[in-house]
Amino acid sequence: MLAFVLRRLFQSLIVMLAVALIAFTMFRFVGDPVNQMVGVDTPQEQVAQLRRTLGLDEPVVVQFARYIYNAARLEFGVSYQFRLPVISLLGERAPATLELAFMSALFSLLVGIPMGVYTALRRDSILAKLFQTISLVGISLPTFLIGILLIYLFSVTLGWLPSFGRGEVVKIGNWWTTGLLTASGWKALILPSITLGLFQMTLIMRLVRAEMLEVLRTDYIKFARARGLRTRAIHFGHALKNTLVPVITIAGLQLGSIIAFAIITETVFQWPGMGLLFLKAVQQVDIPIMAAYLILISFLFVSINLIVDLLYALVDPRLRATVGAH
Amino acid sequence: MSAQPASSAKQPPSLWARILDSDILASFLRSKVTMVAAVIVLVMFIGAAFSPWIAPTNPFDPATVFLSDANIPPAWQQGGDPKFILGTDDQGRDLYSAILYGLRVSLIVGVLGVLLAATIGITLGLLAGYLGGRVDSLIMRIADVQLTFPAILIALLIDGVVRGLFKSASREDTALYVLVISIGLSFWVQYARTIRGSTLVERNKDYVQAARLVGLPAPLIMLRHVLPNVIGPVLVILTINLALAVITEATLSFLGVGLPPTQPSLGTLISIGNRYLFSGDWWIVTFPGVTLAVLVLAVNLLGDWLRDALNPRLR
Amino acid sequence: MTETVLSVQDLTVEFVTRRGTLRALDKVSFDIARGEVLGVVGESGAGKSVTGSAIIGLIDPPGRIAGGKVVLSGERVDHLPSEQMRRVRGKRIGMIFQDPLTSLNPLYRVGEQLIETIRTHTDLNAAEARKRAIALLDEVGIPAPDKRIDGYPHEFSGGMRQRVVIALALCAKPEFIIADEPTTALDVSVQAQIISLIKRLCKERGTSVMLVTHDMGVIAETADRVAVMYAGRVAEIGPVREVIKQPLHPYTQGLMGAIPSIEGDAERLVQIPGAMPRLSAIPAGCPFNPRCSRVFDRCRIDRPELIDVGGHQVACHLYDPAKAPAGKTEIAA
């Protein structure tokens, strides 16, 4: 088990190094950090001086090493547009994105899994066919269109829910802000969470359905039926447990893409999160923010992957055995 | 007994032979939904291809567009103008014509992006599967890492980087290529994985070994012998990816990093319309939105059907 | 051996597909007495497994029982309401599957699966059920059952897993069990052990067995009677010794010729030319007629019914006293 954990840790490290290399390449070669800092009329020698202080005349390997060192201390440089340290810009907006992502994930799991189980078990019922149709529409509608649709329905037409912002937020500790403690915060969270979670929900529903149908065809389910076990025990004990094991993996990975897809939702709802910041950075080619966002998001993804892998090994006794044997 | 003629063909039958022989055609004719979807896709492709001839006006010719025509509702509504069936946008452009032109741009970007992705993916997949060893593990490692990240994020990053590199060129000239490159580089992994998997299987079959013994060069073996036999699943991915590519393009354009308002795609039109959602000018966002949704839904339906039809286990 | 435990009469199973209705079982009839082992042999696709699934009521759609009946100790069990049929399964009819590697749920401990099954069919509480499960594991020959009961299926070898499967099939003391090729997936070295285990346990409990296999050797050793199936029909049925000593149906003769025997020399090993027809193309008359060396006109028109010939039954016109093609109207479709 330890060897397995170590091997996965090592792999994660390699991925992070590769991502850091890409971020560094962007940082160093796509946008020249010096050109962004100086004005047009800055004298040449002053520019050269700045290059030396920034260490830009040193070998690339040394620069890369320093970039990693700084990144590890969360030093990502200064934003071109805002003239502020990137990390404080991102940190300020992280709570908004994380709260949104968490609620969406919760929504997609709590609705997606039951729908998937239902459509697998009652394959020919009208409701199952309706769910299937909804899921196809859900996968076909781009996230931003869903957002616009919801805004039009619930904000413009009905006037029930706000169409932008986080509502009233409460500060917790030094840097965390939450919308979960105020009524307006909850109201503001509803539409963005559904928008962001809908795609994942349909994905999870389809996955659960496909996986469950597959499991229902296996010999051990047939054998369980041949032993006269109750249908409920077969469906919700045996079949569901076996279905959920692979679903864990995908659901975990979905958490990563939820954070990435938040970029779109945050734009539609003007949600003050990291995604909106990143998008502005892409529009303005604000490389330091892009690079930092890439590294942070990758770190999040890689950590989630790692946790999911370890969880998977804990849940599946077969894997636990092979893992232990290494 | 001669009821089952011994099949002596060493190579599997070609794709077309399989399509004509198998149940695919039958299942197509049976499924009404699929037929409707196919007709919709066909109509949209034709509309896009011939938009300069079909569209009543050229919405991007400044000589024919007047700002005084801005925000006119659809023809059947009060204040509508029969000249503009679906109304006009904030610049006074005919929405129906703008949608036709936008569809054209969306489909061009989608198709080119998917083709680029397929070309990259197939090439790398063939190389990985056929050559094996270090080439294989390098390509597959990159694929693994990239697969961890959602395509939209990668497309956004590539978009930002490419625009950083070509800062001097005007956005109108480069936007389309930037989008195609972003989509191509975001979606290649699935092709590479699929092709590599089937190449690994095909590589060890007799006919490839025979071709090798005869001394045919590796690229020729790959293209002439291996590729035709592994291309089947790629068709399914191509279809489903077209839907994804169109969505990705629309999303990027909506986010303001895709096509500019002077050369709008469906996504750009939606993004423009979104600004007028609260002023009650619902048609500017609705019609491009519905067009996009219907297009993607129809392509997805086709892809779903194609996948089921090609997958013998589900029959 | 007089009391009939299971009686299958004219059982017909059909699969409705887009290309027409396939008849997987065509009027299959046989009886099994208390404590008796009936061997069912035939090539793959002959309908052996479908017979088993039909008896236990687990034919998956698009398949369905289209005719005939299944009578268990005097009670019809085909077309029972699903909840009642569920109570029959496991409790009165047990089933042993072919592949022990796939018939146990990998995520549940062996004991959990046993206890769950025991408690479904009895009123035992958890502790009693566990005791019973340990006793059962001991009975099927699993060493240290009180420890292994908490093991996962993957921790058992193939042979041991099949013993667990047998314990699961027998845990509610059914009066009849279906063993569907119980040794096919196992190593040759453990096959004999598993077969003798099934035989011993069933003899002790007086359980009747339907042993499905394509291995005539297993049948010869284990079964009291044997049914030979071909293309969804019973071709010949009778006491094992007689069928082996004096096979009547040309197909059975070919099948016997196809098992190598120790005393016989290689020349006796004959092969039946051709292959069994697919379900979509079963010939009219006797389904074996295209491959039969002794075929005559009537075989191509008239479906042979089972007739008594010297102690066992055979479906072949060769043994019909009225040899000439009669004007029978009932012709199999």
Molecular structure report:
The complex is a heterotrimer of chains A (326), B (315) and C (333). With 326 residues, chain A is mostly helical. Chain A has helices at 2-30, 33-37, 44-54, 60-72, 86-121, 126-140, 143-157, 183-216, 219-226, 231-268, 274-284, 287-315, 317-325; strands at residues 170-172, 176-178. The mean pLDDT of chain A is 82. In chain B, helix 8 (171-203) runs antiparallel to helix 11 (232-254) and helix 9 runs antiparallel to helix 10 (218-230). The longest helix of chain B has 37 residues, at 95-131. The two termini of chain B are 28 Å apart. The model of chain B is unreliable at 1-11 (pLDDT under 50). In chain C, strands 6-7-8-3-9-10-12-11 form an 8-stranded mixed β-sheet, with helices on both faces. The interface between B and C is small, with 5 and 9 residues.
On the 0-100 scale, what is the average pLDDT of chain C? 83
Query: What is the string of helix and strand elements of chain C?
Result: EEEHEEHEHHHHEHEHEEHHEE
Task: Catalogue the unreliable spans of chain B.
Answer: 1-11
Structural class category of chain C: alpha/beta
Strand percentage of chain C? 15-25%
Quaternary state of this entry equals heterotrimer
Q: Level of helix content of chain B?
A: 55-70%
What's the short version?
The complex is a heterotrimer of chains A (326), B (315) and C (333). By secondary structure, chain A is mainly α.
What's the topology here?
The complex is a heterotrimer of chains A (326), B (315) and C (333).
Chain A: H1 2-30, H2 33-37, H3 44-54, H4 60-72, H5 86-121, H6 126-140, H7 143-157, E1 170-172, E2 176-178, H8 183-216, H9 219-226, H10 231-268, H11 274-284, H12 287-315, H13 317-325
Antiparallel strand pairs in A: 1-2
Helix pairs in contact in A: 1-12, 5-6, 5-8, 5-10, 6-8, 7-8, 7-10, 8-10, 10-11, 10-12, 11-12, 12-13
Chain B: H1 15-21, H2 24-30, H3 32-49, H4 51-54, H5 95-131, H6 133-148, H7 151-165, H8 171-203, H9 206-214, H10 218-230, H11 232-254, H12 266-274, H13 283-310
Helix pairs in contact in B: 3-5, 3-13, 5-6, 5-8, 5-11, 5-12, 5-13, 6-8, 7-8, 8-10, 8-11, 9-10, 11-12, 11-13, 12-13
Chain C: E1 4-17, E2 20-33, E3 37-41, H1 48-56, E4 63-72, E5 75-76, H2 82-88, E6 93-96, H3 110-121, H4 126-139, H5 145-148, H6 158-170, E7 176-180, H7 188-205, E8 208-212, H8 216-222, E9 225-230, E10 233-239, H9 240-245, H10 250-257, E11 307-309, E12 312-314
Parallel strand pairs in C: 3-8, 3-9, 6-7, 7-8
Antiparallel strand pairs in C: 1-2, 1-4, 4-5, 9-10, 10-12, 11-12
Helix pairs in contact in C: 3-4, 6-7
